[in-house]
């Protein structure tokens, strides 16, 4: 995100705007070709004030202004980004100044490098949605198809949270080996674990084998949720990086919805839980083959070079080749070479006077500690306000709320999934307009109200099952405009550059650890305290999280990563 320039006016523009060059406003249309050429020439020679908007290609030694059409053209082009700057210092009819961060690319070239990593998030969401129906099928004497269907509350908790414990273990394992594996190989490994875990779970002859499969699948979740945002962020063009990372949350929601749909289709089948868990395996196979076809992250290759893991020139050539493939350019093209060189220079400077690989404890020092309190607090409250319980147990909650037939509960879960998808789309579209804090404050306040309604239903509104459904919809909608997408967006932008990788690893550990604990504890707590008191407890915690957001979480809308580090973390 670009900051405001002292010499210009920043005009807000839609994220994706289809513009026709011939339809320029009269005030910006040159009267003749000579006038247009004179303006381009004057822009080329006018001195610029020192601004972050003017760094990069425009200030490089071999910079060239892009060739502008002298005649109206019928060619369509996409203007991607949230801002466009106009120089107001030389009159009211100036041409727009090129943003050096606006990289030329084709949408076709960025689809696959986003899609295959995002499938890792989809498979995580699918596990959440499928488990909602699978817990009903697995414990039904008529539908289970097993002799060990009568699970205790602890055994049920292990089945539900087994993948989360695996994800927690995967998050622990990935920290020391992430730089060795690289983002691409990390995601390929995640796909292998997804395939093996899904297959073992669906074919399990007993509870022990089923739990082993759930653990392997969870290991895949841990690796995928660490590697996917890194690969997407490091390989996509800078002007759409925020959009694509936010869309990854949408893929998680799509996975949840897919899990609900499969559960709805198989809920009446004997052994339907096997199909629910097994569907993830072929999707993971597509993910693995897709990642195998993609190049490594160019930035990871440069990091390995500056860390002294191999000859600098060799890694640099590999990075140029990888970037050329990712952008659909000819091998070794000059544009990719210049971009790699521009990325390598600050990396060398950042690592010049530092140890190549810093200590894990850096995250708990100075500005990084402040960032971890904010990011870690958000992902912790994201889980301990009951989110995993509401999602994993959507079917049983609705069943106990009056939808006695398992199929009815599963169908209502599909409705919840569709609503979740809708609200996530709203958050993705509005987060850069409204800001992080307003969405967090409004969404968390709604979560508090919804949890109080759920508690009230179980206390004295039991004759009105629609209250439970409305409360669940309110919870899901508020979660998806607040904690769902914005917590991870804040995690990705709040840490200083040097500790960003380790900070994200620690945030993933916090997220999955608290998720596993809450998911496992929900059934025993419900038996001990009753559903009404459990949801009341979640409501009190949600109220505390609202105070945390109001008092400690800053607004980062419109700030560059460097501005966040210099203005908020100092």
TrEMBL record:
Membrane topology qualifier: Multi-pass membrane protein
Region feature Disordered, mapped onto this chain: 21-66
Bilayer-spanning residue ranges: 105-126, 153-175, 187-209, 215-233, 245-263, 275-294, 439-458, 464-491, 503-522, 534-553
Domain Major facilitator superfamily (MFS) profile: 113-557
Membership in a protein family: Belongs to the major facilitator superfamily. Sugar transporter (TC 2.A.1.1) family.
Cellular compartments annotated: Membrane
Swiss-Prot/TrEMBL keywords: Membrane, Sugar transport, Transmembrane, Transmembrane helix, Transport
Chief location category: membrane
GO cellular component annotations of the record: cytoplasm; membrane
Gene3D superfamilies: MFS general substrate transporter like domains
Keyword Ligase set for record: no
PANTHER family xref list: D-XYLOSE-PROTON SYMPORTER-LIKE 2, D-XYLOSE-PROTON SYMPORTER-LIKE 3, CHLOROPLASTIC
Basic residues bias spans: 30-48
One BP term from GO: D-glucose transmembrane transport
Protein name: Major facilitator superfamily (MFS) profile domain-containing protein
Statement: the UniProt record of this protein carries the keyword Transmembrane helix: yes
Domain of life: Eukaryota
